[in-house]
Amino acid sequence: MINELKAELNNHKNSKERSSFLIRLCDQGYNLHADTLLKYADELMMQAEKENNTFQKAQALYFKSAAYTTKGLIDTSLALATASKKLLETSTPDPVLLANILNQQGRCYMRRNEYNHAIDMGYQVIRAGEIAGDPLIQVKGKTLIGWAYLEMGRLNMALLWHLRAIHTTTDTVLVKKYGIVFANLALNYLNLGIKDSAGYFIDKAITASREYENLFALSNSLAIQSQLFIRTGKPANAEAPLKEVIAIRKLIGDPFYIVSDMSQLGLYYAHYGMPEKGVEVCKEGINIASRYQLDSKLIFLYSSLGENYKALKDTTAYASVLEKIIALKDTVFQKNSAQALAEIEAKYELEKKQSFIMEQTLKISRQRYILYGLIILAVFAALVSWFLFKLYKKRQQLILLRLQEEEKQQSALAVIKAGETERKRIAADLHDNLGAYAASIASNIDNIRLKEKNEANDMVLKELRNNSAAIVSQLIDTIWVLKKDNLSFTAISDRIKVFIQRLHPGFPGIQIEVKENIVSDIIMPSSKAYHLYRLIQETIMLSVKTNDVQKIYVIMESTKHWKVTVSNDSNEDNIGHLIHLNIRSAETGFFTGRVKNGNGRYDLQIIPTTN
Predict the structure, then answer these.
(1) What domains can be seen in the chain, in order of their start residue?
(2) DSSP secondary structure string for all residues of 260-289
(3) Please, are residues 137 and 128 in contact by the beta-carbon 8 Å criterion?
(4) Residue 538: which of 505, 586, 494, 490 has the closest Cα?
(5) Which of the four pLDDT bands, split at 50, 70 and 90, describes residue 344?
(6) pLDDT score at 473
(7) Quick check: 414 pLDDT over 80?
(8) Among candidates 601, 604, 488, which has minimal Cα distance to 536?
(9) 151 confidence band (pLDDT: 50, 70, 90)
(10) Which residues, at least 6 apart from 242, have a Cβ–Cβ distance to it below 8 Å?
(11) Pairwise CA distance, residues 306 & 344, whole Å
(12) What is the pLDDT of residue 451?
């Protein structure tokens, strides 16, 4: 991967494309030598300054911080990480870069043994990962917290956080890319004495680290594997991973880990019959520690070297090494005066007490929150239960109402159906019986008039015939209504025309005209239609019997609303009859009539009632 990126970088001289490849190379920082990473980070900074790209400047400072951490220059590294964070605040917000900067600050605090600050950084990394929606960042934050607890010797808390880290996501590939979490889990289980679990997770760590070419995770995993071999009585298997660890550390260039591993390897050689190799490894480690002023590591290296001279029975060299160790310890004690140590101890005790108080406060708060949560949950469950009960009760009421409504509708339909059946039966009976009798009366009256030429009886017979004809006419109209469920406004108008045709022979001197303006043909129930028809019919009959009437207009209008107007040219003396008819007809509750006076004419208008 790194070689491919280096080749691509050489093939792209364009500034923008080159910056992109520089960033991708710097992202491989754990797999690069510190000086190489610093070189690429410096070039990225130059490109960012040329383009005045604040965000890339923040990235370059972050990569430089990582390089100086590897070189063991922790104060410089922490200062660069802080500067990167400040630059990012003035640039485009990027939760991923912010999380990486916070994680880098956490690494610095770990090197300085400031574990509380490192844990605080871990929480901030988790929050940034949640904002970014990036589970890998959350895994890094939880791993950082677990590492801090591991260094503090709080193994159970460390194990808890490392298990939380691997269970952050179900994406196993994503977790494998950060294989150091498996290595930390293995070290957790090893320190807890659970060697089977330690072996399982260290194998996963090594496999994942090799698969995704994570040299930093691989070197730590191999170092832990060597410790596991020694503690399980397989020292012969520990040499190969230790040698590979040292080779990788040299490739990465992290002197802190290099000299630690070399000291461990020197002790291994001293105790397992290879003191010559132990002397050689320890001397090389001493040279590296001296170059980077790692005085605390020099003591362990000289101690390991002394063990190897002791194994070789070289008393002169062993005595010289002991003198050197004494001198180094004196130097360390001089640098750390009693007063300074007391201050550090007091600070540690204070932080320890604060940590204890914080833990107790958190414990109490957690218990209080649990109690509040249970109360809220109980209230919520009660509300939900009440709501569901009310909903169920309302649903049952709605079902009952629907059933009652359906029963009413079925009853109403049955009544309507029975009424229709009865109405049609009555119409048939009227047609078959009364109609036949009325027609027979009219026919018999005609026969009497033909046979009996008595003038005295002629007027009576004539009146009888007119009445029988009226009975037949009204019977026909009644049957017409009874046979229909509903009637249209047009049908009523047509029926009025038929009535006028029957009326005309009896009043030849009066002209009756029907005018229609039917835009919307309104449908009425048969009972309502019959009342309207009878009202118009009676109005026309009253009009033709009025003195001096020569023309009658019947106007049928139906647009948005319907209206019937019966107009004649009668004089004012007959208006009382029209009003009387209007009042009598309005008692049906269906219609309202009113008389209008305009230009010497008096009209009766019939409109739907408003009540």
Answers:
(1) 2-346 (1.25.40.10), 486-608 (3.30.565.10)
(2) HHHHHHHHHHHHTT-HHHHHHHHHHHHHHH
(3) yes
(4) 586
(5) very low
(6) 64
(7) no
(8) 604
(9) confident
(10) 222, 223, 226, 261, 264, 265, 268
(11) 31
(12) 57
Tell me, what DSSP letter sits at residue 591?
E
pLDDT digit string (tens) for 182-191? 988 998 998 8
Average pLDDT, whole number, for the chain? 76
Residue 568 forms beta bridges with which residues?
Answer: 552, 602
At 235 the pLDDT is 73
Q: What are phi and psi of 597, to 5 degrees?
A: -120, 115
Q: For residue 50, give both structure tokens.
A: 């040329």
For tokens 């995704």, the residue is: 212
Distance in angstroms (rounded) separating the CA atoms of residues 205 and 166: 12
Residue 611's pLDDT is what?
Answer: 41
- Using DSSP bridges, classify how beta strands 523-525 and 486-488 pair: parallel, antiparallel or unpaired: antiparallel
Which residues are 518's β-sheet partners?
558
Which amino acid is it at 57?
Answer: K
What is the mean predicted confidence (pLDDT) over 108-121? 81
Q: DSSP letter at 14?
A: S
Q: Which token pair is 245?
A: 């660890």
Angle at Cα 527 formed by Cα 438 and Cα 530, nearest 5°?
55
Where is 77: in which H helix or E strand?
A: helix 74-89
Sign of CA pseudo-dihedral 592, 597, 602, 603: negative
DSSP 234: -
Q: What is the DSSP string of 531-549?
A: HHHHHHHHHHHHHHTSTT-
Contacts of 550 (CB under 8 A, 6+ apart): 509, 510, 511, 569
Output the pLDDT for position 400.
Answer: 86
498 touches 538 (CB < 8 A):
no
Q: What's the burial of 75, exposed, middle or buried (CB within 10 Å: 0-12/13-18/19+)?
A: exposed
Claim: this prediction has a pTM higher than 0.90: no
Strands (E), 317-459: none
Question: Which ranges constitute the DSSP H helices of 90-179?
Answer: 95-111, 115-132, 135-151, 155-166, 172-176
SS (H, E, C) 360-381: HHHHHHHHHHHHHHHHHHHHHH
What is d(CA 67, CA 34) in angstroms, rounded to the nearest whole number? 5
Provide the token pair at 149.
């607890």
Four-CA torsion 34, 40, 41, 47, nearest 10 degrees: 170
Which pLDDT value is given to residue 472?
64
* Amino acid making up residue 385: S
Q: What is the pLDDT of residue 80?
A: 92
% of the chain beyond a pLDDT of 90: 5
Bridge partners (DSSP) listed for residue 606: 564, 593
Q: Are 254 and 228 in contact (CB under 8 A)?
A: no
Cα 199–201–206 angle (5° rounding)?
95
- Judge whether residue 576 has pLDDT over 50: no
Express each pLDDT in 217-254 by its tens digit: 888 888 888 878 877 878 778 878 878 887 877 777 67
Q: Is the pLDDT of residue 340 over 50?
A: no
Residue in 448, 33, 85, 56 with CA at minimum distance from that of residue 253: 33
